[in-house]
Amino acid sequence: MTEKVGTQLPDVVLYEGDAQTKLNLRELFAGKKFKEAGADIIVCVATNDPFVMKAWGAAHNVDSKVRMLSDMDCALTDALGVAMQALGCKRSRRFSAVIQDNQIKAWNLEEGGGMACSLSNPTLEQLKAL
């Protein structure tokens, strides 16, 4: 899916580590550029609360390699149009994106609950191709 390519990131607040540590997503990605087919920043966003995201990151030893951010208010999920209902709760469909200075350069939205296009290898290839 490419419908988001070329659009700007929404101006939303996410949380890191706890419910008081707020991050503006556009500020986080502002001025970020590509580096030799690598990335300045890698972010994992989920609709879980920030405490769960912090624990999930610790359990997988992400250290400072991946920013584990909470979209507990579903602001990003709603703004990107990727909301779904699961077990009676609003959740986010699985997606990945390559962002350059707040513009979506590559967009991958999983269809039917699978895990293929949003995995790290296809996303890294898109990053290298840009």
From TrEMBL:
Q: Which GO terms describe its biological process?
A: cell redox homeostasis; cellular response to oxidative stress; hydrogen peroxide catabolic process
Task: Give the EC number.
Answer: 1.11.1.25
UniProt-recorded Gene Ontology molecular function terms? thioredoxin peroxidase activity
Against Pfam families, the record matches this protein to: Redoxin (PF08534)
What keywords would UniProt list here? Answer: Antioxidant, Oxidoreductase, Peroxidase
SUPFAM superfamilies with a match to the protein in the record: Thioredoxin-like
Class of this enzyme: oxidoreductase
Checking InterPro entries in the record gives: PRX5-like, Redoxin, Thioredoxin-like_sf
Q: Which residue numbers delimit the Redoxin domain?
A: 32-111
Q: Which GO terms describe its cellular component?
A: mitochondrion; peroxisome
Please indicate which superkingdom the organism of origin belongs to: Eukaryota
Q: What is this protein called?
A: glutaredoxin-dependent peroxiredoxin
Traced from the root, the source organism's taxonomic lineage reads: Eukaryota, Viridiplantae, Chlorophyta, core chlorophytes, Chlorophyceae
